[in-house]
Write a structure and sequence with these properties.
Elements lengths: L1 H11 L10 E8 L10 E4 L6 E2 L5 E7 L2 E8 L6 E7 L5 E8 L38 H8 L17 E4 L2 E2 L17 H4 L3 E3 L15 E4 L9 E9 L5 E8 L7 E12 L9 E15 L2 E9 L2 E4 L6 H7 L7 E4 L2 E4 L2 E5 L2 E11 L2 E21 L14 H6 L5 E3 L5 E3 H14 L2 H4 L1 E2 H9 L4 E3 L2 E3 L4 E24 L2 E22 L6 E2 L5 H4 L15 E2 L4 E23 L2 E18 L11 E2 L3 E15 L4 E12 L3 H4 L16 E13 L3 E31 L5 E32 L2 E14 L4 E6 L12 E5 L13 E10 L4 E11 L1 E2 L9 H4 L13 H7 L4 E2 L2 E14 L2 E10 L8 E5 L7 H8 L9 E4 L4 E9 L1
Parallel strand pairs: 1-7, 8-11, 18-25
Antiparallel strand pairs: 1-4, 2-3, 2-5, 5-6, 8-9, 10-11, 12-13, 12-51, 13-14, 14-15, 15-16, 15-17, 16-21, 17-20, 18-19, 20-22, 21-22, 22-28, 23-24, 26-27, 28-29, 29-32, 30-31, 32-33, 33-34, 33-35, 35-36, 36-37, 37-38, 38-39, 39-40, 39-41, 40-43, 41-42, 43-44, 44-47, 45-46, 47-48, 48-51, 49-50
Length: 954
């Protein structure tokens, strides 16, 4: 590109007599802060005379004849700029002055720092396609993330656990469940906002990844904008207020740079009833530049938080109380109190070394350590009824099901008839009586405090019937990684990533609050009924059965995992093809160590064996350049992925058993895209097919009606009819196929039209084998802690969790006076709830007494009760607008967005089937009611929401 500039510059020095009225036109590109914008592409419409701006933002065109011209200026993360100008016959040189490029980011993202982690020109040798599929330039990915993603749309229906999220060179994925806890850097938007993304299963330079994108973030202190930046936001979402302040020193003459940031997000009550939010974020980045070839950074990130969560509910409850209803809270002494509060503090310390070994070779090395606890509270109880207001016996539908003249007991202990109880409960729910529709904390305290003093295991006091517990994760995570790149020449590049992770987490439950009692018993409250004659102790090694606040109870175990990965890659250009090939070899070793000896399971205590997995993978990307603006792009991936710890050890709270026949998940993913990238039209049309095999899924729930026959240590049979069970499906096969289309058309220099369409069919492809275990049974007659239920007939059922059709159409106006306004319409359809495996096995239709199918059962009846749960379609309208000013040395930005402008509250974002009734006869009886007692539970969209952002830089 610079050779091109040099050549045209040479011709400008030739004698003017060689030309007739030929003119040189030049200008400088700068951003909103007056800083040069380098490497922007400048296209002269109707001409092949295209150039690239240099290091100071300078560009020029030579030999222009008199006439009218239009040039188009493009650069990733900046708005496309169209400039018209005229050339007259008497002009030899024409100065267009300074052309200002505004940020291409929308809504509240406007004006935030853009991080470009590589300023080395040598690494930009493949500039022809380097930005082709970047999320900032791909209209489909951008709208899918910011607009459709707000309504729980997942591109291609792929689980986020199949991706990779990296921070400063190391993975942030948790080995126990495969999730990323974004709360660990919550509120630090201006530090972590602009990652490099390899979409879907495309290969990445930083990690092999999966088929749900590789997201890479780097936080180098010197790469943030020098000076102060303050931001204040107001919203009506999970939190109400956000404030942040960041300061960056810039690189000093001695090679030091510092960035420090603090943030807080808070709400006394969020958009969901009874929720609160209080979270802080802190960042310290220190960078030392030893010389032009060697830099080292230190990053510290801490984000302590405390927030409450909201509940899913059945349709009956939403019909009474609306979509903002939340059953997890109630009044205590006139103040709101939530039972579901999550709090955590897991700081991250990272050191990263950047070494330019020679002009062609770079080596980045990262070391990271994270530790701390995450706690989630919940209400628990022993030998009393579930106190939740949405427990099925506390809803009007329960009383409506009974004989109207049947005698029932009111919550205060008095007697009444079912008909009177129905009318009383219905009125209370319709009128919002908090004593019925919310937790009654005062009643729970009174019940505990009215307990008689007794002697339990040598301790005297009042035993808690109701109490609060914390489920605790105490993590210690060490990561080390290297990233090596070597440019053989301008068209070929070698990449090598090597990573190691040592993951240790201790998971246990502790007493949070005794609600007025003296202690709680660390004992199974159902043992006397389900396992008569046994101790019922959750830890038979502990003499202290009476637990007080802060004591561990119920379960305590340690997960350990070590994982090592090697990821070589090679990029090269040949003819009209750009090719990127990436491979992976990985080894993981996983184990569980029980710290409690459960009364039913011999393998509950002590360290179990190591379970080792070898994994391999291959990814490839090929880009065919038809010309400079039309491309074909193929991405292919085949790899296997070791099961996460919670899939491997399917019931770790009570034993060390592993899922039967578990294997690494195998993924085969392919897509083909046609891409158009012109100054006026950007378009991508993609077809994709993703096949997944050998997947293991685990679900836990309460079930009635199962003939659970166990065997104790003496060979005696035990029978349990109702219990908490764990359901395991192995060798699950899925197929995700469909198409994506995204287009951005600039109809005027300041007005663009954007459209997105996604159509998919995400289905189960086989009838996987289903097993189940129960906390109340122990070993089954087969001597194992689980039993085989046979096939679950879910083949061709749609997968749940995301709409399988999504469409968006919008307009965006960008004024030369630095304001913008945009709006888009979104439509979502084909959203399903995942089918529950247990009720689709042969066991579901078998009579417990005869062992044969229920008499008179027809295929039509079975299909009726087990038909797929399809959720309603919905459409939404979003708007956003903003304006920025430069006042002397100060920069001010205000932006606002409103989602779901017309307050559509009919859209269900997700849910799950309840499997309380595990037999056809009771399931059908419940299914036929007006309000099914154990109907699916849903989460609804929150309705109209807004976000207003004010930013000030100086």
């Amino acid at each position: 590109m610079f050779k091109k500039l040099s050549l045209v510059s040479l011709f400008t020095l030739l004698p003017a007599s060689y030309y007739y009225a030929q003119t040189t036109v030049y200008a400088y590109l700068k951003d909103a802060d007056g800083k040069p914008v380098e490497r922007a592409e400048v296209d002269l419409k109707g001409s092949e005379n295209d150039v690239t701006a240099d290091k100071i933002g300078y560009f020029q065109f030579v030999d222009l004849q008199p006439g009218h011209y239009q040039m188009v200026i493009t650069k990733p993360n900046y708005e496309t700029k169209v400039v018209d100008f005229d050339v007259t016959s008497d002009e030899k040189r024409k100065d267009l002055g300074v052309v200002v490029l505004g940020s291409a980011l929308t809504s509240a993202d406007q004006g935030l720092a853009i991080i470009d982690s590589d300023d080395d020109e040598d690494s930009n040798s493949q500039a022809s396609t380097v930005g082709l599929l970047q999320s900032s330039q791909d209209v489909f990915s951008r709208i899918a993330s910011f607009d459709l993603g707000f309504y729980w749309f997942r591109p291609r229906g792929i689980d986020g656990r199949m991706g990779e999220n990296m921070l400063n060179g190391v993975s942030m994925v948790k080995s126990d469940n495969g999730n990323v806890d974004f709360g660990n850097w919550g509120g630090l938007n201006e530090i972590t906002r602009y990652p490099e993304i390899s979409q879907n299963h495309a290969p990445s330079e930083y990690a092999f990844g999966g088929n749900s994108s590789v997201i890479y973030k780097n936080t180098k202190a010197s790469e943030y904008r020098k000076g102060f930046q303050g931001t204040y936001s107001i919203t009506n979402r999970n939190y109400r207020n956000r404030f942040s302040l960041r300061y960056t020193s810039g690189m000093s003459k001695k090679g030091w740079a510092f960035t420090i940031m603090g943030a807080r997000r808070w709400a006394e009550e969020g958009i969901q009833e009874g929720t609160f939010y209080d979270a802080y974020g802190a960042y310290l980045g220190i960078e030392k530049k030893f010389n032009d070839k060697h830099t080292m950074t230190f990053n510290f990130i801490a984000a302590p938080y405390r927030r409450s969560t909201s509940s899913p509910s059945t349709q009956e409850v939403y019909d009474y109380r609306g979509v903002h209803y939340n059953s997890y809270w109630g009044y205590q002494n006139g103040e709101q109190r939530s039972e579901r509060v999550r709090r955590g503090f897991q700081p991250i310390f990272q050191i990263q070394d950047f070494w330019k070994i020679n002009p062609k070779t770079n080596l980045w090395t990262s070391v990271s350590y994270q530790f701390g606890k995450d706690k989630g509270s919940r209400l628990d109880w022993q030998n009393v009824q579930n106190p939740s207001p949405t427990y099925y016996r506390n809803l009007p539908s329960y009383y409506d099901f009974l004989n109207p003249d049947a005698s029932v007991t009111n919550p205060d202990g008095s007697q009444t008839t079912a008909q009177e109880a129905f009318q009383t409960s219905l009125a209370a729910w319709q009128n919002g009586d908090a004593n019925t529709t919310q937790l009654n904390w005062d009643r729970l305290y009174r019940r505990n405090m009215s307990q008689p003093v007794g002697n339990y295991y040598g301790q005297s006091g009042k035993r808690a019937l109701y109490y609060m517990v914390n489920d605790v994760s105490d993590d210690k995570i060490f990561n080390a990684a290297t990233h090596l790149t070597h440019n053989f020449n301008d068209t070929s590049k070698l990449i090598l990533n090597v990573s190691y992770q040592n993951y240790r987490t201790q998971q246990y439950r502790e007493v949070n609050d005794l609600l007025g009692a003296d202690f709680v018993l660390n004992r199974d409250p159902f043992a006397a009924t389900n396992q008569p004659g046994k101790s019922g102790l959750f830890n038979e090694l502990d003499d202290n059965v009476t637990k007080k606040v802060g004591d561990k109870m119920t379960y305590d175990y340690i997960f350990r995992r070590q994982e090592f990965k090697v990821n070589p890659g090679f990029k090269f250009t040949t003819g009209k093809f750009d090719v990127f090939v990436s491979a992976m070899a990985g080894y993981s070793s996983s184990s569980r160590e029980g710290l409690f000896k459960h009364y039913l399971y011999n393998d509950s205590y002590g360290k179990g064996k190591n379970y080792n997995f070898l994994n391999f993978g291959l990814k490839a990307q090929a880009i065919y350049r038809m010309n400079g603006r039309n491309f074909f792009v193929y991405n292919g991936a085949m790899y296997n992925q070791a099961p996460f710890l919670e899939d491997l050890f399917f019931n770790p709270r009570v034993n060390g058993s592993v899922a039967p026949n578990i294997k690494s998940t195998v993924v085969n993913a392919n897509d083909l895209s046609y891409v158009v990238a012109t100054p006026f039209v950007k378009m991508r049309l993609t077809g994709f097919l993703v096949n997944t095999e050998n997947e293991t899924t685990v679900q836990r729930f309460f079930a009635d009606g199962l003939p659970l026959a166990g065997v104790d240590a003496d060979g005696n049979a035990t029978n349990v009819q109702s219990a908490f069970v764990t359901q395991v499906m192995t060798d699950v096969k899925r197929r995700n196929m469909g198409g994506e289309f995204g287009i951005d058309v600039k109809v005027l220099p300041t007005l663009s039209v954007q459209g997105v369409a996604s159509y998919g069919e995400y289905t189960y492809q086989n009838n996987p084998t289903t097993y189940f275990a129960s906390d109340a049974v122990g070993a089954f007659s087969n001597g194992l802690s689980y039993t085989n239920l046979g096939k679950s007939y879910i083949k061709n059922y749609r997968q749940g969790g995301t709409p399988q059709q999504a469409y968006s159409l919008g307009l965006r106006y960008n004024s030369p006076k630095y304001y913008w306004i945009g709006a888009n319409w979104n439509f979502l359809d084909d959203n399903y709830i995942d089918p529950a495996a247990l009720v689709r096995t042969e066991s579901f239709v078998q009579n417990n007494t005869s062992g044969t199918p229920f008499y008179g059962l027809t295929d039509e009846q079975l299909r009726d009760v087990l038909r797929p749960n399809k959720l309603p379609s919905a459409h939404f309208f979003n708007v956003n607008a903003g304006k920025s000013w430069i006042i002397g040395k100060y920069y001010v930005l205000i932006s606002a967005s409103v989602n779901n402008v017309f307050d559509n509250t009919k859209y269900i974002t997700g849910g799950f089937e309840q499997v309380r009734n595990a037999k056809f006869n009771t399931y059908q009886e419940d299914f036929s009611r007006e309000y099914t007692l154990f109907a699916p539970k849903f989460w609804y969209t929150q309705g109209r929401s807004y976000f207003v952002n004010l930013q000030f830089r100086f």
